[in-house]
Every structure is written in structure tokens, then in C-alpha cells.
Write a structure and sequence with these properties.
Chain A is an alpha/beta fold. Chain A contains eleven helices and eight strands. In chain A, strands 2-1-3-8-7-4-5-6 form an eight-stranded parallel beta sheet, sandwiched between helices. Chains in contact: A-B, A-C, A-E, A-F, B-C, B-D, B-E, C-D, C-F, D-E, D-F, E-F.
Chain lengths: 327, 327, 327, 327, 327, 327
């Protein structure tokens, strides 16, 4: 189903139903929409994220995107399908997250990588929990301006500022396997930071990232994450600076550049076993000329291209090789 | 409390707390914010309606607005206060409506007219129910493009398409005391219309309004509504054409002009006993230059100015009298 | 095919191929996209008109739209399909119009009413010519701010200011069967007006429309148009005031109100035999909150609802009847 | 000179210098820019009004605009020139108004009709005073949402809320020859209204306008204004509803429709001797798709077309005559 | 007072009156609004800067902002109050600057750090002069795309292109204690540069900044500025690239990134004695999704956080330390 | 002629006619507008590029722009004129490119450097071919996100994705003298890349650029390009990230920063003999606050400033020298 607006599949890839085991069984990756903004603490609008991410590209919707630098076509080299949206009413977060968690879990159980298009970040609870069901030990690599480890959201357990606390509290993810990159600003408070420290979370504030270099941080994160059987990649679009992603709910100046995030996502996916993924907090009413949604679209493509690379280990070419030599 | 953004009172009127009986007891009218958009079926954003309606005016925020045509100052002639927002989490509609209904009921019990700034139209359930508690028999005059009498909203009882059905089903409002003006478009379906007819609702589609004239319709409505002890006035901003109110969640072309609505609201309030009121569905992310929020602001002022007129029955002047003669 | 962006059908109606005679043969109406803006004299952008008109509605894309006032469901009572877009490169107007004319002609030949979503108004040449092929005598009812009877467009025969001259010059439409409503502004020059007068065109400038009343004009037009076997309805969205349709290429202040146009279109289609139709000049880059595209969407629905009424002559109800009485 | 941005003339008419007596002496009308927004009480931006009004049209900038209904070409039938902008620093209102008043006075002294493109409405002081210098007795016809008769503007004599008081206090215009149409909203206060009444100003609030009809009001105004030797026409774009003119500094809902204003301006200019004119309060930063600036452009054209009609009294045609009959 | 719009305090900190010596005497920092855009040479709109900077944050307005990297809460660790706006009429720059200078001087005399929210950059004259009154020797660190050392502004001494010349000419600041960072583009002319050189100003054009590195420049500047008793920090938001700050009056491509500016401001304030500060040229009408205003808000917070660090010299932690280790 | 809108010259430089040999013969550089968007594959709007690039600057339009870092005034040190627009109907690409090619060829033949303001990138065919006619051996330095070496554009030879293939196929430019910088994304397909490799094109994908450094790439490119008699510089604005240039037709995230492009263009022009240039794909309808057009304006100024430097070889100063030392 499509929750808001007409039925559109991600860049023209095949559309299959979430309960069509046969179709899904043969797939590597499934795009799934989570059009939910009931968990936002400020600007709503992320409910239109899935359709904007699916449909902001300028090229034909033909289910093919040959990657210029990596020489893979993630939509052809992998079997990628779109299972449409989960119906997630904004007004009942437990119902909404329950449905999403079930759908994501279904995909993971079939060894299909769920790629969830948010939606606000409260969906991480469902996405991580649902993916985790398939694996004994899963790490999370989390790009975000905010730690999302708050205790309560308007007095409630779920919301876009609390999911990372919930999955650690639940025992789904161990704190020392939780890697956060790009944090900054004036949140959370010291008590929450103390809780995070006690969980042994690995959180890289932007000053440390810029001081040590993003490459060094990523190497450190990937080396540690590799020790888990699976990795879940969570990308909150507000990890980049508002210049690159104005269309989001709680922007925080001073973020990564688009090229840093694209490269980082590609690197993570071509290095560790990403078995689930989400791109969240794209809020189209605040976007301009679709640039935020288009960036989110490219994050998905870079991630899947990275997965292709990882699955073709014999390929000794490097992305930075000259474009027009024989490969 | 203010749910999103800084604390601002409606045009600079005094700010009092909802539980301050003393301050409220001396008041005629209380502005109350309902920053809720969890009940929308399409575009969210109405959560920012209250702050936009409070703060879109170009004149000083001095708690005074002398009405040019009516020669009243609704913010001075009436004792008007602002009780801030009710905390209404988008993700839990029952909790949210419960809190709002309680707050509105509190005001009504103190004989204070609640003027609720929405928020999406699902709040009508709380606003009407809360106000009704004070009266034995209450009519509803409802300006809207949509009947809002749907049975279910994404499978649920509450939402911005269902509140009018709920208050009739509950027995709060009798169908024949429910007056709808400005309906149009392609909703609801025949089954719902049949239910409405069975309730003996009085619903005026826009074609009938234009054919008979809005004045004639209003006369008919006011004559009937006057038979109730109290009237609740519900104004969904989408009753006007999208040209006048682009900043709304589910626009429908072909609506009233702004001047028709302003005049109609003034007329109703100066004719029947309006004891509660709401202005809903202002969605600032879709507005331009604040024109929609400003129109909603004026709807409140026209309504209160009408109330002033009704309470000064000795005044024989008419709004259409020349401006600069002795009155 | 879809020329720009993902494949979307008009409000969720079935999508069939233009060369699928079997599917088309059973249809009453076919929506067809003409994503062409190569013929504009000023702002381009109308190439995105078809997708915006198809996808701007706030309700579910379920192929059903029950008309509140008319009690018909134009998408269900008629067999309506969407044949996608014609590939119309902006850079070769003759090629583009040729392809469109052929597609429209195909539909007309099968007795399917083509409803063309523009695109700039240069497409009228193809739409009128293509539809005309099926009929011996066709009238045109044309709502527009501009007469579109210019002789040359940047020195060329085709363009959005010349199509109405071309179809008269070609002998396709006789001047006295060409009815224009809503003209205004500062174009064309006296020589062109003289040519129009010689063709005996019936052109109603907005001052005359307001002086005599739109109803009287429409009665006059319909009485005359009814003498033709078929009528083609051409609606340039700029016939309404820019307040109602900012998203257009060459706006002209002082136009009709949205409600006037919607009602007029409904009236024409429920009165004379409209056998082809176009809605043109929606330019999404200049729109705000999709209000122009939504108005165009409603123009199509009102037109088809009018067609339904015309085909059910036994129905004695009137649109202005009370909504909730038995019909 | 051009104060902000490149040199552009109104629709391509000749550009002459304000001190070129020879060129000006042969002219009927001079367009003059007053790019001043230092007098605004809320939103600034009107400094860009002149360039937006000059350059928002979609047709070629060829110095010709044949009026469809009136069959005149105001830019050809009259000798119309553009004298560029007056340098009016925002930060020194007395200096700015002094310069403008001198320039307007120069034009009037040469029997050239000044058409001033604002700029905020504080310029009315200079425009009226400057034009008045040429005549013994001048009336003012003033379309506006606001009376602009305030006593002080942030404690100062000049500003966009006070000019009409100043010109009456100065004795430039007698109160009973000051006609205001379209006033509405919540300003000014009773003391100011009492002052206005004492001056015997003729001010028509919008409720009276709608009750009696704009035509009746205009007839009354023109009959009275005709008794003066000359008339100054002041059009504040906010007299129309914000739907038609969002790009303005202090919008007030419930205004005239664009077609009402265009027709009224045309009527006034074809009925009484308009010897000076201003169009003010176009604030491009708040406009959308240039619709406000385009409306202001048309107000100028309608006014000049009306002047053409007045100067050709032998023409017995009426604007509402059929377009394509011999005239 | 609040000059435009409702009363709002910076992120919910206490609001005190500028003449309340008692309240101010106990304060470390006072936020003060300078809503003035009468000094702009192109786009106006900066009058709305103060309210936008105060109210663009997405988090609760609770007067607390714990800095993630520095582990200080600038709004709690310092005693910070908001004294509202100075009434600064756009139309009288000398009056406006006089009032502001007096208010800033009052604060400085009480040893309260004035943090002025502009407003256009002409206010620097008042801000620097007012702050300087308290100190014998003050340096200025100035981030800007423009040197603002022009001689005249539309023929006048004050304006947003001239303040830096005025304070040097007046002898308030010695040229060699004036440090400018980020200059670029095509202004000023060689004569002005020669004047600057004669004053021995230290101006770093962006090419030099990028060539040597911003860190090296800052070290050089801080080492020199430290020799003064006090430092005034002037931040023109247009020092960053328009991508990061589109909402400004005279953007110049090729500027700093947001992260560079935030880090530089933090560095300066934690290194030298900043005793006064301004953030100017935020022009909300040209902003998108409030990103420019939000950046300005963060500049204030980073500056105050830096001040906190400087006042806690015992703290040996560094901003780039890992986030979750004991500090 | 000016194709759309009023006549405006680039920053106030003299306007001469393209066929005025005398005026042109004395010129070094001619700005020429190519208002064509008929060749776009997605968003149109680039037809308004020329006027936006000419008129987006905030400074006076006085034909002077002293470069702060280089100490040249490109508009004064070179003889620069503006020849207006070529009339390029969107609907006939061959006609349009033919006219442009002829105009560019005229300029080149007179040893005037053509600086073409696009328009979409299909114009490169005319610009390169036209310029090439004057030289025996010309290299192309091409900044772009896309290689523009596609074979067909909607089945046709010309379009904005194919010009670079055409000029190589025609033998105008040898593949090994074609240098592309900034390519990225998911286009073109491997077959096209293979064709490019066979032509021995030198194409630098963004990953290689970031890995090796833009400086190293530029050195390599300039060293090679210098071997040709002349260089044509083609700058597609989409080579920068959408954050810096949202106003373009086919944005691709992950691009260069504005400062990288400005510096690179300056470097190329001050190093090799640039004898023709184009800046393309600025699409104003998608721009915000004119930031994209302003960047394009600066690209022209940086290029011309670079040309000035190259022609003054005695100047030993470097752009990164301190601003205020004697030079």
C-alpha cells in the first residue's frame, strides 16, 4: 500500500507485496516506506519522506543506476524490490512501530536487506528490532546530529529522540556495539551522556570527527563493527549541515558535507556486513528544489553500491582510480 | 505551556494558567492552543497553527484591536486571556484529545468561552464535547469544505475526518442541530451521506450556497441554531478557496472567498449565543507570507467582535453604516 | 510511457497502453499527458503539468471520486483509463505535436474522449485536430485569458499563442463555432482582432462576461455549440485570476474565480456533447502548495462529472438541491 | 538613476532624465520610481517595488500594450516616458520625501502626469504635495485597507501610516475632497476616526462597499471629485485581499478582488481628471511568482487606458461591448 | 520593548528591562535586539533578524542549552538575560544608532557583555562605540565578506558599508587592532584599500585564509588581540557562503563553511576577552526553513560557550576529546 | 535583442549589437545570452539563466568590479561588452544552435572572447564549434557533474546530454584534449564510458578529485591543455553541490564547493589561453534568493579576472598574499 499519494516505486524497480514470500525470497534488498511523523518533537512532514526519496531523481525511472565510480549497477547487480509503505498512522505510535517492526522482521527473516525510507527517527526502534531478530549479534552504525538516547518523549517511551536508548535498554544492541558519528549541538543533558557512557556507547562528536578526520573514525568504527555478525546502518539526514539538507525536522548547523556522508556510507557498506538500513528525517515541506530528498536517494544508492562491492571481493579497482582506464 | 517554540500570547493579551481559577473566573473568553496534527490524513503541519495564528499580525502586540466597522474592541470590551497550549502529543490521539477536552471543559464550566486554535480538525471532538458539558442543548455551526462525518480514519475512531460523526453518535449533538456550510468536492461516499441524512443533519453544499446566497443560508441556520441554549462555532480554514488559504492540509478548490467567511462568522456571532469556538487546519509549512494564519487570526477577531455586538443590544448602528458619521 | 518522473496514473485509475485497442475500446474516457513546454513564450515548466495534475490530490489514489453535488462518480460511472504520456521533446515542436495529434486521433477514432493534460497551449493544435478527425462538425469552447490567435510565434507557425488561428486557417474549426471566454489584458493587436472578427469568432472579453453575467454567456455559447455534432473543450488555467492559479506561464490579473470556472466547466459538459478536452498551462515550478495543479485536477473531475450527468438525462435533480434530501 | 539593480524602463518605454525639460515637455505621463521602504511599520521590501512593477510582465518590452477591451494603446496613444528612480535613502525619510516631492513637482509643473511606483505609502506625502503644487484644488481618491491618517509613526511625523493626515493638516487637501475606499480591519483607534470625521473625510469601509456595491460608491466619489480641478489617485495594493496581493507589507484579509480594483481604477481615470497617481506597498520579497507586482503593473496600465478614454470623448463604445464587432 | 511582532526572549532566558539596574547588575551577558534595516544598500529585511535569531531553535525555550562538546551550559553557567529590542526606526539612522549606542553603553558600563542581534551592519558603529566606552583599549575581531570601510553610503556617513571606517576615524579603535577575516569579492575599490592599509588594519582575504589555514589566521589574530584589554566580536553572517546563509542582504559566494565559522567563534571567545558582540545581517525574508537564523543562534551559543570555557581555566578537557569519557 | 524580459546588460557594461563590427572589433570579451532550455531532459527554466546571471548582483550596475584578491578590474581592464541574447526558440533546437553558433563564431573571428550565458548545456555544441572556427587546435576544460557524452537525447542528436560527444565525433575537439572535472553519480552507462575511453578523453570523477586533490588535477589539466593554441572553458553549474546551486535542472549531490569552483576557474584562466567560455544550466525557477545565479555571475568575473592576470605577466603578486600590503 501507499499511505499518502500515488503508488510509486523507488526509481522504477519492481513493486512486490510484503506478504509475497515467493517474490521476496528471491530478492537481496527491499525498499520499504515508513511514512510516519507522529514521533517528531518539532516540525512534522517526514511522512512524505518515502515518496520524495523514491521520486526526486531527474533520470528515467527504469530500475537501473550504473555507479560511475564503482562500476556496479546496484539496482541490477542486486535484486532490489520495493514493497511499498507500511500503514503507520501518525496518531498511534505503538501500533505504527509494531506494524513496521513486523514488516522489517519479515524481510530480515527471508535474508532480504530491509532499506527503510523514513519517516521520523522514532522508526529506528522498529527497524533495528525487526532486523535484529534474524541475527545473534548486530552492531549499529548511526550517523546523526543527535544521539537519540533521550529517556522520554513528551512523557512517553517512543519518539524520535529516544529509540537508541530503547534498543539498548531492551538488550537488542549492546552499547559498545553502538557507533554514533556526527553528534553536535546542545543536546542531550549530562545525565543522558552519563547513561550513554555507562552503556559504553561509542559516540563521535563532530569536533572529534573534524580533529581526527572522518576517515580515521570510520576505520575505527568498521574495525569494531566487523566483529558483529551483522550491522544496521541508520542515517539521519540531519547529520549533514542544513545547507545540504534544509528539508528536515530538527536541523543543527555545523554538520557534515554531503560528500562526506555519501563517501562514508559507501565506505561502511563496502567494508562491513550491512544487513539493514534506514534513511530518516527527510521532511519535504521544508525542502527546496528536492535537494534533501535527492541526497537521501543517493545515500540509498551509495549504500547499495557499497554492498555490491563487498559481494564482489575479487574486484581490485578502487573508486578513486581514473575513470576511463580499463578496469 | 507552549508545546512548540517560544511562549507567545494572542496579540499580546494576558497569559494565564489553565488551572488558575481566579484569573479565569473573571474572564469572558480564553484563547487556547491545540498544537496537534496527528489526526491528519494527508499533509501534517497544523501543529504550528496556534503559534502562527497568535503571531501573524502586523500591528503591535498590545492586547487591543478596535474593530473599524463595528466600533468595538473585542480584546478590551471582553475580558480575553490566553491560557497557552495543551500538551497534545501527535502520536497518541486519545491522550491528546482527552487533555484538550478536559481543558475546554474547565473553561466552559467557568462560563469562559473557549476559543481553540488548532491543530487539525480531529480536535473538534474534544472541543465540542468539552464545551457541551456546560449546556443542556448545544447546536454546532460548522464551516468546512468537508463534512468530517467519516466512520473511520485509518481504521480508527478519531482523526480529522470523523469528529462530527462521533459527537452525533455519542448523543452530544443532535443531527438536526448540526449545520454545515461550504461542503464540496468528492467526499464522502453515498453511504456516509445516507447516514448524515438519517441524522437529519443540515448540510449546505457550496452549489446550494451560491445558488441561494450565503445570506439566506445564514439566516436559516441562525434561526434554527437560536433554538439551542448555546452554539459551538467550528471553522475549518479550508472552507475558503485555496487562493485565500493555501496553508492547509487538504485544500479543495471552489471555496468561499475570505470576505464571505469573515462576514459570515461576524454575523453568526452577533446573532446567536456562541459559547465555544475553534479555528482549525491552518498548516503553516504550506502557507505563503502568513496569509492563511492571518485570515485565521481575523476569524477569531471577527467572532469576538460579533460577540461584543450581541452583548450590547442597545447599539442600533449597523456595520454597513458610513464609517465617519456619529454613532 | 512517462516522459518525466515516475509512472503515475490519474487518481489511481487503470493504466493502459495507447496502442492497446482492446482495453481502449471499452473505455469512455482516456487521460493522456502532453508534457510539452517548448511552445511557451515566457516561463517554461508546463512539461511537469501532467504529473502534477495527476498527483496533487489529497485523497487516496483509488480510482474513485464521488461528486458531492452531482451524485455521480465520474471515475466509476464512466470507464476512464490513463494512457500515460506522449513523448514530446521540447526541442522539436512539429514532431511533438505530430505524435500527440496521432495519439489523440487514435482515441477519438475509438470513440474514447481524450482528456489531454498539458503542457503548454501549443498542444491545442494537436488536440483539436486529432479529435476533429472523428467528427464532421466540431465546435470549440475555449476558456482563456488570451485568444491564442497570433499569426507567428518567434517567427514560427506553432507555439502557445497561435494554435487557434491554425485550426481555423486549416478549416478544421469554423470561426463562428469557436467560442472564447475570459479574454483580457493587452493582447493581441488590432490586426489580429480584425482577423478574428472576419472569421466570425465569438470571443467574450472579461468585461462583457462580468457585465452580462457568466451564466448568460454560457447559455449563449451552449445554445450555439449544441448545433455542432461535437464540442472540444479547451481550458487554459490562466483564465482564472493568478490568485487561484499562480502556477502558470503567462498570468494575467483580473480573471475568473475558481468557482466560476469549475461551475462553468461542469455546466458546459452537462449541456453539450464534449468529445475532447484539454487542460493546459499548469506550470508547477511557479505553483504554491500545488493549488494550481489541484484546480486543474478538479476541472477534469467537474468536466467528467458533467459528462455523467448528460448521459443520465432521467436524473431530474439539480446540483443546487439540498445535499441531504432523497434524490 | 536606478537605486537598486539594473536600469530597466517600464515595459520598454523611452527612458529620459528627470531634468531633461525638453524630453519631458513633450510627454503626457512619466513613470517615476520611489524605491523607499524606510517608512514601513512592519515588513520592509517595498524598495524593490519599482523594479518589480516595471519588469514583471510576460510580454515583450516594446513600449506597446493595446488594451483589449478599450481599444487604446496607453503607451502609444499617450506619450509616456520613464524617468527612472529618485534616490531615496531608507535611513533619512525627510531627505527622501523631499527629493521625491521635488521630482514629482517638476513633472506636474510641466503638465506631465506623474505615475509614482512605490515604495511604501509614506511617499504619498511627497506625491500628493508635489502634484498639488500645480493645481488650485485637488481631490484625492484613495484605495487602501488602511486610512493612513495616524498621527505619529514611531513617534515621528512621517511614515506609511500618517501621510493622509499630514496633507490634510497642511491644508494641501481639504478633508471633504479626500475619498477613501476599501478600509477595513482593526485600525485606527476611535480618536483618529473622530479626527477624520471632523475633517469631513469620505471614507468607505469595506462593509459599506459590499453592502451598497462598489459601483455606487464609485459614482458617488467621482461625482464629488469631479468638482475639483484635478484628482490624485493613490492605490495601496493592500486594498485587495492578500490572495491577490500577498507581496505587501501589512496585508489585511477581506479585501477587494483584483477585478474589482482594476475595473475601479479604469473607471475613475476615464471619469475624472486624474493628474497624478501612485501605486504603493508592493513588497517583492513576500510575493509569489510575481503576481502582486504584475497586478500593480496592470493597475498602471488600466489607469493610463482610462486616461486615454477620457481624452477621446467622441468614442461611444463601452468596455463591455462585444469584443469582435466593429467599433 | 519589542519593535516588530510579539515579545519573545532568546531561547527562554529571563526578560529584563534595559533600565533595570538591579536585574542587570547581576548579569554576565545581555541579549539585545537591534531590529534595524535602514542602513542596507540592497535587500532590506534584517529588521526581523532579532526575532528570528531568538525563535528559530527546535528545542524547548527553557533557558538552557548544554553544549555537547564543551560540557558547559552557557545560558545557565553564565547569568544571561534578554533586554528586548531597542526602538530603532528605519527612517532615521542617527536617532536609531544613538539609541542603540546608549543602550549598549549602559550594559557595558555595568560590566554586562552586550550581545547585539542585528539588524544590518550599520549598527556596528553603535555597538563598538557603546562597548568601547567601558574600556581603554579595545580590539575588534570582524568576520565578514565585506570590509565595511566605505567612506559614504548613498552620500551619508552611516550605513552598512561604512561603520568600520567611522570607528577608526573617530579614534575609537586603532587600525592595527582591527582584524577582519573572510573578505572577498569585488569591493571595495583601491582607494579604500589604500586607506585601510594606511590605518594598518589587519584584513585577511579568503584566498589567504584558505592558503594558510583558518587556524593559523586565528592564532595570529588572537595573539595580537589579546594585547588589548577587551575585544569586540562582530560577525556578519555573510562571511559564510550563501549555501549556509541564504537569508542575508548582500550575499557573496565563496565564503566560509558554517562549521568553520562556528569553530572560529568558539575559539576566539575561549581565547581572548570578548566583552561585546554582534551578529548581523540575518534577513529572514530571504531565508529558507530558518537555516540562516538558526546558524546565527548557534553563533551566539558558541560564543557564550567559549566565554564559559575562558572563565573556567582549570578545565583541561579539549573540545575534540572523545564525548563519552570521564571529564 | 533580449529574448525574455527587459533589456539588461551584464553588471552595467556597454551594450552593443552583435553585427556592429566596429564596436566589437575593439573589444576583448563579449557577454552573450543563450536563453534556451529546449534541450533539457528534466527541469526546464534555464531560458531565464542569462537575465538572472546578468542581474543578480547586489552592487551598483556600473560596469566595474575591482577584484579584491587579484587587484584587477576585469570589466575595466578588459574591454567587455554585452551583445544581448541570441533568439533561440526552445522548440527548434537546430535553428537555435545554428543561430548561436553563428553569433559565437562571429565574435571569435574578431578575436573577441565569447562568454556565453546559458541556457541548458546543449548550447555547448554551438559554443565550442563556433569558437573553434578561429583556431587550429582547441582544448576543452569542462566542469560538470555529467559527462554529456550521451549518444541520443530523446532519440535526437542534440540535447543537454550529448554535446560533448558531438564535438568529438565531428572532429572539432580531439578526445585527448577534452578534460572533464567533477563527474559523479549514476550516468552514463558502461557503453558510453567505453566510447569515452576510446576517444582518450580525460575525465576526472569526483572521487579521484577528492583523493588526489583538485589542485593536482588542475595542474595536470592545465599542463596538457596548454599544448593547444586555445582553450574553451565550459562550466555547468551543477558541478557544485546542490547546496551551492539548487537552481539547476539536474542536480547531483556530492559536488564541489563553491569556493573550489571559483578558485579553479580563476586558476585555469590565469594559466592557459581561454578563448571562449560558457556558464550553463542555471535554472532560476528552482533557485533560492538568487544564490545560484549569483554564483554563476562570480564564475564569469573570476574567469575574466584570471584572463587579466594572464595578460599582465609582470605582476608577481599572488592571490594569497596579504590584502593590505603594497603590491
Amino acid at each position: 500500500m501507499t499511505m499518502y499519494g500515488p503508488e510509486v516505486s523507488f526509481l522504477g524497480i519492481p513493486r512486490v507485496e510484503i506478504d509475497d514470500d515467493e517474490a521476496l525470497g528471491g530478492s537481496d534488498v527491499a525498499i520499504i516506506g515508513a511514512p510516519f511523523d507522529g514521533g517528531t518533537s518539532y516540525r512534522s512532514g517526514a511522512r512524505f519522506g518515502p515518496q520524495a526519496i523514491r521520486a526526486s531523481d531527474c533520470q528515467p525511472y527504469d530500475g537501473s543506476r550504473p555507479h560511475l565510480a564503482l562500476r556496479v549497477d546496484p539496482l541490477r547487480d542486486l535484486r532490489v524490490v520495493d514493497v511499498g509503505d507500511v500503514e503507520m498512522p501518525a496518531f498511534d505510535i505503538e501500533l505504527a512501530l509494531g506494524r513496521l517492526g513486523e514488516a522489517v522482521g519479515r524481510l530480515a527473516a527471508l535474508d532480504v536487506i530491509p532499506v527503510v525510507l523514513g519517516g521520523d527517527h522514532s522508526i529506528a526502534y522498529a527497524d533495528i528490532t525487526g532486523t535484529h531478530g534474524r541475527y545473534d549479534d548486530m552492531a549499529v552504525v548511526h550517523f546523526d546530529a543527535h544521539a537519540d538516547t533521550g529517556n522520554l518523549h513528551f512523557g512517553h517511551r517512543f519518539g524520535h529522540g529516544t529509540p537508541m536508548r530503547r534498543v539498548i535498554e531492551d538488550g537488542t544492541i549492546r552499547g559498545e556495539r553502538f557507533f554514533q558519528i556526527g553528534l553536535r549541538g546542545y543536546w542531550p543533558d549530562p545525565a543522558t551522556l552519563a547513561w550513554m557512557a555507562r552503556q559504553q556507547m561509542k559516540s563521535y562528536e563532530i569536533t572529534e570527527v573534524r580533529s581526527r578526520g572522518l576517515g580515521a573514525i570510520l576505520d575505527e568504527v568498521c574495525a569494531a563493527a566487523r566483529q558483529s555478525e551483522a550491522v544496521f546502518l541508520s542515517v539521519d539526514i540531519d547529520v549533514v549541515d542544513p545547507a545540504f539538507a534544509p528539508g528536515t525536522g530538527t536541523p543543527e548547523p555545523g554538520g557534515l558535507a554531503s560528500w562526506e556522508l555519501l563517501s562514508a556510507v559507501r565506505h561502511v557498506c563496502s567494508t562491513v556486513q550491512v544487513r539493514g538500513m534506514e534513511v530518516v528525517e527527510v521532511a519535504p515541506p521544508y525542502d527546496h528544489a528536492n535537494v534533501t530528498a535527492l541526497l537521501a536517494n543517493r545515500i540509498v544508492l551509495e549504500a547499495l553500491s557499497g554492498v555490491c562491492r563487498l559481494r564482489a571481493p575479487g574486484d581490485s579497482s578502487r573508486p578513486e582510480d581514473p575513470l576511463l582506464i580499463d578496469r
